Amino acid sequence: MISKGLTVYCASSVTIDEVYFKAARDLGAEIARRGYTLITGAGSMGLMGAVNDAAIAAGGRTVGVIPQFMVDRGWHHRGLGELKITESMHIRKELMASLSSAAIALPGGIGTFEELLEIITWRQLGLYDGNIVIYNVDGYYDNLLAMLDTAVDLHFMKTDHKRLWTVATTAPDAVDAAIREEEPMNFSAKF
Predict the structure, then answer these.
(1) Residue-wise over 1-26: b if at least 16 C-beta within 10 A, else e?
(2) What's the whole-model pTM score?
């Protein structure tokens, strides 16, 4: 078993379809059931709230990482096992990555896209060595995956860069991909 937690990036929106809430609850419960620590951005609403609630209900350990300005606005989940408060969003993302052995992206908006693409970039640069999983619930990430394929096809990325992430369509498959032992990646800076 990996020693660190699994970071989950996801939406805080509450106006999204139930299929995404179910996926978030399934993922939180699966992470807890397998004995891993769930690490999130500590939000109480949307998919972030759902994944946290499900992990807590399943008896799992939860760690939330949130900047002070979000705590000041009351956006933090008050039932988490541990709450780490940072000075900024940048420090928040760095701390979440340092606490985790893998990252899973549930569907989300611009913040989730930014977190996902940043952690992929960090892995490509050798700054993060954990597995990265795109949890493609109900085809949500199909267009992003097509765009990444286009970047490879047009030589903006190497074909090997597609190994930086794994795509999963169920909570058990997402956790399996997150914890799978992989050979370290070594990408040269030359494109």
Answers:
(1) ebeebbbbbbbbeeebeeebbebbbb
(2) 0.94
